[in-house]
What we know:
By secondary structure, this protein is α+β, with helices and mostly antiparallel strands. It is 48% helix and 22% strand.
Amino acid sequence: PFVALDDGESELRSFGLGLAEELVSSLGESGFVQVLARTVTFGIATPYGDPASLGSRVGCTHLLEGSVRRHEKQVRVTARLVDCEAGQPRWSRTLDRFVDNPIDCQAGMAEALGLAVAEHLGAVESEPFAPTPDQSYLKHLFDESESVSDEAPG
């Protein structure tokens, strides 16, 4: 689960647990990566535990851990993918969202994190860069200026 960095805030702890639940479900349903059952992941969840011993105990190569912070209506989630064998973070992502509906916010964050983890692990290909209309227009102008300079007498 995601650790609430403000120990006195039960609402933030609940948000972190809900996010972890949503992420386990999202990753499990996607089929991109193998995910341990929720009962296993929540049973071994000990913040700042040794990734190597946790990984060997449950037979996994990576652990996803993270934290949740809040300021008024804004929530910040930081997630890290830890290589169990090396005990080192291999990937990290921070997401900021304004929370009007916690369930929708958790679902959106879980989807974004799940896709990013799957991309990092090579389970899915990342989306190719799609230029904005302004970028396409600027490239068109640049290409035209290049072709004009190539045609100039020299």
